[in-house]
Amino acid sequence: GDVAVLVPAAGAGLRLGPGGPKALRLLAGEPLLVHAIRRVAAAPSVRAIVVAAPASDVQAVRELLAPVAAVTVVPGGAERQESVSLALAAVPPGIDIVLVHDAARALTPPQLIEAVAAAVRAGHPAVIPVLPVVDTIKEVGPGPELEVVLGTVDRAVLRSVQTPQGFRHDVLAAVHAAAADSLTDDAGLVEKAGLPVTCVPGSELALKITRPMDLILAEALLHVS
Ligand code: CTP
Ligand code: MG
């Protein structure tokens, strides 16, 4: 099965603070998107890469990535899900497996990308990388002044979810075509369609660079990734 990787990279990066679209923010002198694409291209199964870039930066992103890998760059949308749909529409013929991978997870190891693709190839229609939850998690509600605890969730059955998320091409196309409401991940659409979603072990290096502290952490992790 030939693998395509869709890379949503059109977000503003508001939580990272001022400094332009997150995918173009620098980590050790190179844009996050370059770090991400270099690792995607290093996964042996990957045959095609489609990047959804900020609409105003499409040409700049093409030029930026040309020396890194052969990529198709399309303008992204207002929501992540729309960016994924636009990238999905640009997948070349002959692709059986599609991975969706956030540019913000710029240090994701090629081995994790390969492991997700392998699990789809082995027969799982949808595959996500997960990590155990480390914090105690509580459900809260509004109180008279501050929030109050309603209960403690059993952490043992909870997982944090990363990308790349992998899908049979036909499954991802069907759930995206039918998507009515916006979700923060693509596997959520598959769940809603009643299909099984299978977990593989994630990687701490696949952290999503979201807040300023994550950039500091990522810079330190560059030495081990
Ligand atoms: N993304 C996208 N199109 C959007 C919104 C997000 O392609 N309209 C991408 C981001 O570029 C990122 C991934 O989806 O690679 C995960 O989103 P997130 O981490 O939330 O990034 P941003 O939306 O850029 O950040 P923020 O929510 O802080 O603005
Ligand atoms: Mg966002």
From TrEMBL:
Record-level GO BP terms: isopentenyl diphosphate biosynthetic process, methylerythritol 4-phosphate pathway
Residues spanning the signal sequence: none
Site (Positions MEP for the nucleophilic attack) location in chain: R155, K208
GO MF, any single term: 2-C-methyl-D-erythritol 4-phosphate cytidylyltransferase activity
Keyword Transferase: yes
Superkingdom classification of source: Bacteria
InterPro entries found in the cross-reference section: IspD, IspD/TarI, IspD/TarI_cytidylyltransf_bact, ISPD_synthase_CS, Nucleotide-diphossugar_trans
Catalytic activity annotation: 2-C-methyl-D-erythritol 4-phosphate + CTP + H(+) = 4-CDP-2-C-methyl-D-erythritol + diphosphate
Enzyme class: transferase
Keywords, sorted A to Z: Isoprene biosynthesis, Nucleotidyltransferase, Transferase
Enzyme Commission number(s): 2.7.7.60
Site for Transition state stabilizer, residues: R15, K22
Pathway per the UniProt entry: Isoprenoid biosynthesis; isopentenyl diphosphate biosynthesis via DXP pathway; isopentenyl diphosphate from 1-deoxy-D-xylulose 5-phosphate: step 2/6
Function noted in UniProt: Catalyzes the formation of 4-diphosphocytidyl-2-C-methyl-D-erythritol from CTP and 2-C-methyl-D-erythritol 4-phosphate (MEP).
Family note: Belongs to the IspD/TarI cytidylyltransferase family. IspD subfamily.
HAMAP family the record matches: IspD (MF_00108)
Protein name: 2-C-methyl-D-erythritol 4-phosphate cytidylyltransferase
Organism: Paractinoplanes ferrugineus
Gene: ispD
